C-alpha cells in the first residue's frame, strides 16, 4: 500500500512555483549531490560577488519535496555571505517550509548539501586561481637601483620575509661608490669617522646576500604599468616595484666642456682618485657639498685648488668652511661664473667672469672638476605616467608610494634632502608598507 503524508502549504506553493530554477551564467561554483536510496539528484550553481551570494539557481531530478527544498534554499541563500550560507542546515530548510514529512527530510538534506558543495567548489577554484596568480610573479618586491636606497630597501624587505630582487646597472652602492669610494660618511649617525663609502656598501651587500636578496647586475630598460620590469636578461614581475635609480652628476653646459670631458683630457665630474691630480692646478666649479668635498679631497695631491662659485656664499656645513680656511692652497672665487674651458689637446685655462666687477678673468689650470649638481635618473619612467616635479624628481606620499599603485620610490629620486640617511629611512618605510600590503598581518 502506498504511504500517505501531508505537505505544508509552503511546500506545495514552492512545488507549484519553484524559484530560481535553471543555470547561473558563468557560475563561480557548482554543487552536485545525489541520494542513492531514492535516486534524487540535485545541482546548485552560485554567483559570488565580494563574498556574498549574488545568485543561486538549481536543477533537480527528484520528487515534489526535492523541488520545494531546492527552491526554498535558493531563496534563503541569496544575499547571504558564504560563511552564513554554509551555516544553513537541513533543519533550517525544513523549518522555513513549515516542516516536511519525516520520510522526506533527506530532500532538505540534499538541498543543503548541494549548496555547501557549490560554495566549497567556489572556494577551491578561488584558491587555485590565487595560486596560479601568485606563480605569475617572480618576486614580492623588485628594486631598480642598488645604491644606498635600493640596497637598504632590499635588506629590510628580505628581513621581513619578502622575496626580493635588486637590479643594479653598474656599481653596487650607487653614486658614492663610483664618485668617492674612499670618502668618510660623516653624517650617518653611529658611523662617523669609522666608515668609508666602500666599507658601508660592502656591509650592505653582504647583509643583502645573507638575507638571500637576489642581486642582479643588469640595467632595467623599462617598467610597465602592470609592474613588469624589462631588464637586459628578460622580463620579471614583482607584486611591488621600488624605484631607487638615484641621480647622476649634471653637466655644466660650459663652452669647451664636451671637448675635454672624454678620454682624460682634463674635465671631470668627480674626484675618484686624488692621486690622478698630483701636482695639478685644479679648478672646482660649484658651491655645494660635492664641490667642497672634491676640493678637500685634493688637498694632499694637487698643487693649487680654486673653487669658482656663482654666489657669494658656499652651501655647506660650517665645519667644512673651517676646513677650507685651514688649507692655504685652496682659494674660493665667489660671484664667479666659468664661461669657457680652453686648451689644445688638454685643458690649459679657464675663462671666467667676475659677476660683481663685471670683468673677465683667465686662470691657467690643468683640470676642471664640475660639481654643479645632480640630475635625477628618472628618464626611463616618463612613459609610465609617474608624477614628477619640474626637475624630474618623483612625487610620493608619506609611505613613499608614487601615483601608481604598487610602485614606490626611495632615495635621491624622491627627496629634497639627498643624504644616505634619508635614503635608508625611505627603505625602512617602504619595507614596512610592502609587508602590510602583501602579507596583510592580523594587526592591520
Ligand atoms: C660627491 C657626493 C658626495 C656625497 N656625500 C655624502 C655624504 O657624505 N653623506 C650623505 O649622507 N650623502 C652624501 N651624498 C649623497 C648620497 O650619495 C645620496 O643621497 C645617496 O647616494 C642616494 O642613494 P640612492 O640609492 O637614492 O641613489 P644612488 O646612490 O644614486 O644609486 C642609484 C643606483 O641606481 C642605479 N641605476 C640607475 N638607473 C638604473 C637602471 N635603469 N637600472 C638599474 N640600475 C639603475 C645606478 O647605477 C646607481 O647605482 C653625496 C653625493 C655625492 C654626489
Say how many strands there are: 20
Distance between the termini: 66 Å
Oligomer: single chain
CATH superfamily of the largest domain, by name, is FAD/NAD(P)-binding domain
> What small molecules does the structure contain?
flavin-adenine dinucleotide
| Derived structural class | alpha/beta
User: Which CATH architecture of the largest domain is right?
Assistant: 3-Layer(bba) Sandwich
> How many separate structural domains?
3
Helix content: 25-40%
The global form is rod-shaped
Structure explained in plain terms:
The protein has twelve helices and 20 strands. The chain has 444 residues and is α/β, with parallel strands linked by helices. A hairpin with a 4-residue loop joins β16 (347-354) and β17 (359-364). The longest helix is centred in the first third of the chain and has 31 residues, at 105-135. The protein is rod-shaped and about 115 Å long. The chain starts with 8 loop residues before the first helix and ends in a 5-residue tail after the last helix. The model has no long low-confidence stretch (mean pLDDT 93). Bound molecules: flavin-adenine dinucleotide. Residues 144-150, 167-171, 174-176, 179-180, 185, 187-188, 219-220, 244-247, 270, 290, 293, 377, 380, 411-412, 418-421, 423 line the site of flavin-adenine dinucleotide.
Amino acid at each position: 500500500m502506498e504511504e500517505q503524508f501531508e505537505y505544508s502549504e509552503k511546500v506545495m506553493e514552492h512545488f507549484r512555483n519553484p524559484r530560481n530554477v535553471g543555470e547561473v551564467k558563468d557560475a563561480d561554483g557548482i554543487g552536485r549531490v545525489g541520494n542513492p536510496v531514492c535516486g534524487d539528484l540535485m545541482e546548485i550553481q552560485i554567483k559570488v560577488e565580494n563574498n556574498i551570494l549574488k545568485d543561486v539557481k538549481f536543477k533537480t531530478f527528484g520528487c515534489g519535496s526535492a523541488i520545494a527544498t531546492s527552491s526554498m534554499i535558493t531563496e534563503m541563500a541569496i544575499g547571504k555571505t558564504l560563511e552564513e550560507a554554509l551555516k544553513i542546515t537541513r533543519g533550517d530548510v525544513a523549518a522555513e517550509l513549515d516542516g516536511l514529512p519525516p520520510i522526506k527530510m533527506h530532500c532538505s538534506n540534499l538541498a543543503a548539501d548541494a549548496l555547501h558543495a557549490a560554495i566549497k567548489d567556489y572556494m577551491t577554484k578561488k584558491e587555485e586561481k590565487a595560486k596560479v596568480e601568485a606563480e605569475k610573479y617572480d618576486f614580492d618586491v623588485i628594486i631598480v637601483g642598488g645604491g644606498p636606497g635600493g640596497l637598504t630597501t632590499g635588506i629590510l624587505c628580505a628581513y621581513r620575509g619578502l622575496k626580493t630582487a635588486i637590479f643594479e646597472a653598474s656599481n653596487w652602492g650607487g653614486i658614492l661608490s663610483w664618485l668617492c669610494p674612499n670618502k668618510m660618511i660623516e653624517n650617518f649617525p653611529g658611523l662617523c669617522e669609522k666608515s668609508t663609502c666602500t666599507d658601508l656598501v660592502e656591509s650592505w651587500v653582504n647583509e643583502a646576500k645573507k638575507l638571500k636578496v637576489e642581486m642582479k647586475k643588469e640595467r632595467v630598460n623599462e617598467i610597465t604599468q602592470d609592474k613588469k620590469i624589462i631588464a637586459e636578461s628578460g622580463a620579471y614581475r614583482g607584486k611591488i616595484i621600488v624605484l631607487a635609480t638615484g641621480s647622476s652628476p649634471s653637466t655644466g653646459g660650459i663652452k669647451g666642456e664636451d671637448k675635454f670631458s672624454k678620454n682624460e683630457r682634463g674635465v671631470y665630474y668627480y674626484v675618484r682618485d686624488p692621486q690622478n691630480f698630483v701636482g695639478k692646478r685644479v679648478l672646482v666649479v660649484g658651491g655645494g657639498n660635492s664641490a667642497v668635498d672634491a676640493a678637500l679631497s685634493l688637498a694632499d695631491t694637487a698643487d693649487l685648488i680654486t673653487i669658482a662659485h656663482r654666489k657669494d656664499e658656499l652651501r655647506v656645513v660650517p665645519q667644512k668652511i673651517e676646513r677650507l680656511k685651514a688649507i692655504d692652497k685652496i682659494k674660493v672665487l665667489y660671484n664667479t661664473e666659468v664661461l669657457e674651458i680652453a686648451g689644445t689637446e688638454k685643458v690649459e685655462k679657464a675663462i671666467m667672469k667676475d659677476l660683481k666687477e663685471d670683468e673677465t678673468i683667465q686662470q691657467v689650470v690643468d683640470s676642471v672638476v664640475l660639481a654643479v649638481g645632480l640630475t635625477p635618473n628618472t628618464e626611463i619612467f616618463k612613459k609610465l605616467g609617474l608624477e614628477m616635479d619640474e626637475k624630474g624628481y618623483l612625487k610620493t606620499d608619506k609611505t613613499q608610494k608614487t601615483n601608481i599603485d604598487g610602485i614606490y620610490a626611495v632615495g635621491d629620486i624622491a627627496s629634497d634632502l639627498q643624504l644616505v640617511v634619508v635614503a635608508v629611512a625611505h627603505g625602512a618605510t617602504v619595507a614596512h608598507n610592502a609587508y602590510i600590503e602583501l602579507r596583510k598581518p592580523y594587526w592591520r
